[in-house]
Amino acid sequence: MSVLHPDLLTADDAGALPVRIVRKDAPVEGVWGAWARSNDFTGKAGQVLLLPCSDDGLSGALFGAGETFDPLTVRALAGKLPEGLWRLEDLEADQASQAALAFALGAYRFDRYKTRPTGPARLAVGPGVDAAAILRIAAACALAREMVDTPAADMGPLQIETIAREIAEASGASIAVTTGDALLEDNYPAVHAVGRAAAPHRAPRVIEIGWNLDRTDLPLVALVGKGVVFDTGGLDIKAAAGMRNMKKDMGGSAHALALGRLVMQADLPVRLVVLVAAVENAISADAFRPGDILNSRKGLTIEIGNTDAEGRLVLADILTRAGEHSPDLTLDFATLTGAARIALGPELPPLYSDDEALVTDLLQAAGAVGDPLWPMPLWAGYRAALDSEIADVRNDSAAWAQAGSITAALFLQKFAPTTGAWAHMDIFAWNPRAQPGRPEGGEAQGLRACFEMLSRRFPGAAA
User: Fold this and answer.
1) Which one in 170, 178, 290, 435 has a CA-CA gap of 20 to 30 Å to 396?
2) Taking every pair of C-alpha atoms in the chain, what is the biggest distance, in angstroms?
3) Could you read off the pLDDT of 2-45 as tens digits, one per residue?
4) pTM for this predicted structure
5) Is 321 a catalytic residue?
6) Which one from 23, 136, 238, 438 is the annotated catalytic residue?
7) Smallest Cα–Cα separation from 273: which of 336, 318, 335?
8) Mean pLDDT over all residues of the chain?
9) In terms of DSSP bridges, do strands 220-231 and 329-334 run parallel, antiparallel, or are they unpaired?
């Protein structure tokens, strides 16, 4: 899956057509000035104008830079250029790599179900651009997006397991999978409870990848992902509108697996554990119920106030498992709450951590690569909203607290590893509207920021 065109970025520019970058309202001089004016090309950011030639082919293109050229706007270019080889003209050296990555991100197409998929435009890059490294990052984002875009019928727990096995095998990592009723034997009771109502061939499972674990001289990084392949809401069933895009509720697992693959491919000097709980929150006679009391791997009991707050339940068990490795750093990804969208909208994922240094590092990395995150507080005053009269904690916070994304993060904090730093990202993993270079559908959020942060904290390959 998510294999980009192998020659998407190439150093061979033979026959490449030029793309000229034009700032907003700057005059297009020469033979193409009249053509630009007649086609209302003004240099607006993301605007593309193809330039014809006498043999009915093309001689190049103009690309609008807006007021100030941002290399990330090149993301819009890949989807607007026809199939063929292109090159960007007059790029400064420090912009070339950013523009190449933006182009590769914009080349993503989810055409698995199209009868006639289209071929991509390709980009010739200069000698100072590490095309292989850029394609690894773009392919990681494409993997996450493709997993999210794939309908739940074709992206169930078994398919997530299969992808995890392929990732582990490619990097020589170990993998262990616990499935179905074996989850009870191996002490993942909350994961089992959420997923037990699904059909047998979509049984719940916990997937654990381990890499470099024998290198005890290296720091240990844990990546944790929520993998709810489809969320009906359970017995507290969602309305049709809320259920429509719930194929994306496994976006956290897609991010954890894609980031894990990227870390291993880059050979960062770390030990790595990737933990994913892949379940379907289905409805059957065996579905867990409002009012049930669930056990958890940590030993805390959880009162179920709402079966649609299931993501935090599966994360509770696998965050606890992550803690058993005594990680130096834990990152978890989850499409956890609608409240996060109410607070910050679909394009800005909340970031939660009680480690100021980690927050600073993540925000700096996010700004450097144009992959935004926004810090949110783990406000202690709302912890009481998770109190239960008959259990250790409740999965739906009391209504008085209102701040649903914060209280969900506070719930996870009860189960997060206590060694090292921990950060939680309440991602949307979805573009609700099509924009240039960003088709409606699955989106990678925080993935590049986290990889940049890890690359800065742990530079160089493992010896």
Assistant:
1) 178
2) 80
3) 567 888 999 988 999 999 999 998 889 888 899 999 999 999 98
4) 0.97
5) no
6) 238
7) 318
8) 95
9) parallel
